[in-house]
Amino acid sequence: MSDRARTGPDLHAEGLRPRNVGARVRRVEDPRLLTGQGSYTDDRVVPHALHVAFRRSDRAHARIRAIDTQAAAMMPGVAAVVTAADLGDLDPVRAVSRMQDYHATALYPLAKDKVRYVGEPVVAVLAESRYLAEDALEQVEIDYEELGTVIDPLAAARDDAPLLHEEAGTNVLVRRSFGRGDVDAAMAAAPIRVGGCFRMHRKTPVAMENRSYLAEYDRGRRQIILTSSTQIPGIVRDLLAELLALPAHGVRVVAPDVGGGFGGKGSLYQEEILLAVLARRLGRPVRWTSDRLEDLISTSHGFDERVEAELGLDRDGRILALTADVIGDTGAYSIYPWTAAIEPVQVASFLPGPYKVPAYRGCTRAVCTSKAPTGPYRGVGRPISTFVMERLIDMAARRLGLDPAEIRRRNLVQPDEFPYKMASGIVWDRSAFTESLAAALEAADYEGLRAAQAAARAEGRLVGIGLATYAELTGIGSRISAAPGMPINTGTEQATIRLDSTGAVTAAFGVASHGQGLETTLAQVIADELGCRIEDVQVLQGDSAVVAHGTGTYASRSAVLAGGAATLASRDLKLKLLRAASHLLEAGVEDLDARDGVIRVAGTDRSASFRQVAKAVYSEMGRLPREAREELESTKVYDPFFGTATSATHLCLLEIDPVTFKVRLDRFVVAEDCGRIINPMIVDGQVHGAVAQGIGAALSEEVVYDESGQVLTASLADYVIPGASEIPPIAIVHLEAELPATMGGFRGMGEGGTIGAPAAIANALADALSHLRVEIDALPVTPERLFRLITTAQSRGD
Predict the structure, then answer these.
(1) For 561, which DSSP code?
(2) Distance CA 224, CA 219 (A)
(3) pLDDT number for residue 720
(4) Quick one: DSSP state of residue 196?
(5) How far apart, in whole angstroms, are the C-alpha atoms of residue 721 and residue 719?
(6) 124: enclosing H helix or E strand
(7) Which residues lie below 8 Å from residue 341, measured CB to CB, with a gap of 6+?
(8) How far apart are CA 522 and CA 60, in angstroms?
(9) What are the pLDDT digits (tens) for 263-274?
(10) How far apart are CA 697 and CA 759, in angstroms?
(11) pTM, entire model
């Protein structure tokens, strides 16, 4: 179910909205993807390719004393066995940053001198088939010297803890603080104070397609071609070119169809570097596709935060002060390019959320441990910050006897208070903070739900209702990088759009789709701005060779930045096209209109198709004056500079089975403001998918390590993702409170479901157990955790 609500003028009235933007256009990708005709990295057939298998560390922290590869090298079909020593003086990769109190870590393609987590690649075997390579792996012998375990981030942060990176001199890779106002005085004066220690456990993306890479070396062009299931082909290309001392055209990174990423494919991996190096050295294609075990233990994880937080309020329920101490478990390395800061720093900076917080102090530390590195995961920091803040809001409401909706109304930034600079320094532009709350309550019939809940409770049923309101920064421009202090430009996007001699439109971007439907949405923008048909547009993306600079798709940026660049380039190309047509049609440019690939003279029956104009420009030399001949192509770069706020309210109705402790979600409502919607069908799909991931984070998904650093959830039998039967119907209300200043009025929205859903579910669980005075302070709330919470409360006599 999907409804639409608006404030202000009717933007859908005839003549005010273009014909394609805002329409439920079917995805142009789907015919190939739904019929099995998609082309993924592992589908690419290359003759004489060598297959790689990795011997990965089975130790969490150990020195490598010796590696014996002789027996493996003698196995049938083995072409090479490679260790770090065989890579010579290849420089390590370091995710650098201008932040103070930050320590970069050295990352080599294969572990050098020591291993730092279970799953780290140590030895690579190249063979004629993956089977032969796997057989040879068993013959590799590695002699380890055990070093001290570094598993708990609290223990790892101590001065006497074993060091994972001796050159850093500490396991604390990042320290950062945010603040405003006299927090201590405000908190001391607050008559109502609520707080606790909140925990969000480690997650992993579990994309349908595991990570997969194929590296080829074109000797004629002297070019490395890396086909990769990556979200960031431009970033990978630039890094490999620098690492291997090659010009940019000496490396081409192509992301074909990619079966999901969720941030896990948004970082550089050791395997990508190694395959590129080996393909160049050996002169043969080299390929590797992760199996599910490898994916679960070595693809970057997400979340894994501990937050000590306290909220102070007056007796009317208005916020006076907020404090937070954040410890992020960043795993063994500071991930490239985002650094160890990407998750814990964003937790602290976004914690005040959409609320007015007069005094705030947030301190954060990113601590290195013997686990797989954490990196971007859908929502990056905001699922945790929203979980903590929304739990505090509900805890305060219960203490004051206020309805959870009412306490939010009293503290949300109001429409007349935008732009609003939050306590950590982030500036919110106008977004539907209050309107999304009102819309979610109305769509769910909140009063009716509360009445039904009361009746269910009278029957002894454990029914809970939870709310979560949040805001996020999307489509960020050059003023703010996607991770603090990075020397990489993540704030601009380039589009090159050209009309060829047949009248067809080709548009090239630096973004890289991994399921968002960018080929459709960008074609919709171009069709409206240029005046062509959607079917005439071919969108090229995911290829570092098609634009001079591009970084990829992450941080809810592609619709805002690529859509903005597409708009600018389309407008410029359209002007060129109309100037050429004005000579053919003997009319002024101002009298011409382009629609559906045809240019018409207003008030007449004269017209020329795009094909006819293109033919005149490119081929028919006598049709146009010399000075009127110009290339029908345009390249534009768009920079939104600051970015824009996206906001939403989630409402959840659930019931707990008191026997099995299974949680059943009965209703879920999302009221969101993502600005002008390019394609409502795609937006709905993004919301549904993100909420499903948020449900997993709230109820089941957790990467578990034991005390020795071994992964206990290394299969999908142990790492539990929600099935379709566990996802409730999701009602979506689209809001357009006020269009942002971004080109086209677009906001990003791909991450929102994972941000709001865990907090809403946590609040609903606490509401269902309010008679037991149970607080939900850790996610996921698995049946086992729920059992312990309830039985502990019952043993207290609550």
Answers:
(1) I
(2) 9
(3) 97
(4) E
(5) 7
(6) strand 121-127
(7) 97, 99, 102, 173, 174, 176, 366, 483, 484, 485
(8) 45
(9) 999 999 999 999
(10) 10
(11) 0.96
